[in-house]
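User: Hi! I have a protein structure encoded as tokens and I'd like to know what sequence might fold into it. I'm fairly new to this, so please keep things simple.
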């Protein structure tokens, strides 16, 4: 047990020093794997709101259909990224500041790799 403690504690201490970076990496991985779903969800909300306002104006509805993906991208850069930063600083960083951070990181990266290998790479990258 002493050998495990000798290896575990320095690595966990290093991760605790860089807990903000670890949190950012975890959030980034979630965003990388699920950005399509996030954009589709935001586009549905945006289309629902704009179509309800411009229901009787076909020119504006056509214009919204043409530029809605770009607007969602701009809104995500302006709104979602600062929101993620606030959530990361206030909620996720304190949760990750634990003596079990190495175990959490190991489990998260293992699950991310399994998701990438079993789902993401086969569905989106076309690997069989």
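Assistant: Happy to help. Inverse folding works backwards from shape to sequence: for each of the 128 positions I chose a residue that suits the local structure. Here it is:
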């Amino acid at each position: 047990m002493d050998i495990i403690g000798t290896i575990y504690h320095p690595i966990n201490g290093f991760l605790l020093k860089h807990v903000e970076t670890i949190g950012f990496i975890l959030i980034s991985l979630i965003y990388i794997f699920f950005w399509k779903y996030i954009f589709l969800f935001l586009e549905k909300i945006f289309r629902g709101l704009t179509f309800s306002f411009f229901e009787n104006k076909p020119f504006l509805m056509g214009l919204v259909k043409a530029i809605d993906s770009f607007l969602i991208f701009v809104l995500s850069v302006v709104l979602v990224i600062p929101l993620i930063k606030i959530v990361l600083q206030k909620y996720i960083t304190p949760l990750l500041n634990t003596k079990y951070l190495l175990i959490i990181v190991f489990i998260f990266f293992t699950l991310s790799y399994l998701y990438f290998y079993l789902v993401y790479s086969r569905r989106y990258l076309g690997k069989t």
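A useful reference point when you look it over: Helices lie at 2-17, 19-53, 58-96, 101-124. Feel free to ask if any position seems puzzling.
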